[in-house]
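Supplementary Note 2. Why include the ligand at all?

Several targets in our set were suspected to adopt different conformations when bound, so apo predictions alone were not considered sufficient. For every target with a known small-molecule partner we therefore ran a joint prediction. The input for zinc ion is given below.
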Amino acid sequence: MSFARLVIAGGLAGVSLGSCAEVVPQAQIAPTPPPTIVRDIPSPKRLSFALEGALTQGGLVIGSAPSDTAQLTLDAVPVEMAADGRFVIGFGRDRTAPAKLVATLADGRTVTETLAIARRDWILENLTTLPKTSLPSATFQRLREPELVAMGATRALRPVSQGWRQRFAWPATGRISGWFGSQRIYRGEPGAFHNGVDVAVPTGTPLLAPADGVVMLATDHPFTTEGNMIMIGHGMGLVSTFLHLSRIDVRTGDVVRRGQMLGATGATGRATGPHMHWGMRWNDERIDPQLLAGPMPVAGAAPGTP
Ligand SMILES: [Zn+2]
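The joint prediction is reproduced in token form.
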């Protein structure tokens, strides 16, 4: 439960206390500050949702549920809610339909809010060639299967962290070289969209945790496609993934703090050059990290500075 701070200041001098009290004129009150009483009282009830964030494709929204919410759903799917009524919802890259957020209160009443999800223009690149991927070799397939199993098992984890409440910081700063949602079209056939943001930084650049979290996966060898990879759970189903690392400084299960060194960027796995790839998910929805981290700080500024 949240509490509002009620400050009762100034004692009662100068206030009429009824017919039997002597009223002291204001001018005669001593200038010394009177004692201040601070009391916690319950805040007024919230009757509707409070939402903060980007109501757009790839956007993440932090909300507060109405008071006495017993259950929360987004499009009829239950949404996890913290004890203080705060929650997280996100919208994938191709979301177009409005979202329906429903709070069922303890007394059975419901509060419904329909959210319009703004569309974005994605960077599309039309190519007259075919994708460079050839049929996977037997070796690739043999290596790939356990990698997919490991990543799938990791995504099923739901570590507890309060990182989702924080303001996210850029894990490395530099020129953005790849945008979330961008897509190549090969002779009219769309390829998979880019599911993160790329920042062009040299191999060995420190990679800092964008927010508090729990290391869900820190690979012990480079995966065929992702290279050395870290997945950080920020709580509430919000997960950051970093690919192509040259070095990993954390281990699976570690609790990390915002700004903590996780490792160093690189070009391991399938990468055309050294860069930081930062992907985010809220449950199964792909989220644009750039919307959370905000404008890239100017060169030379510490990561995370607004
Ligand atoms: Zn990328």
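The pocket of zinc ion is lined by residues 178, 194, 196, 198, 277 (CB under 6 Å). The helical segments are 138-155, 289-293. Comparable summaries for the other entries are listed in the accompanying table.
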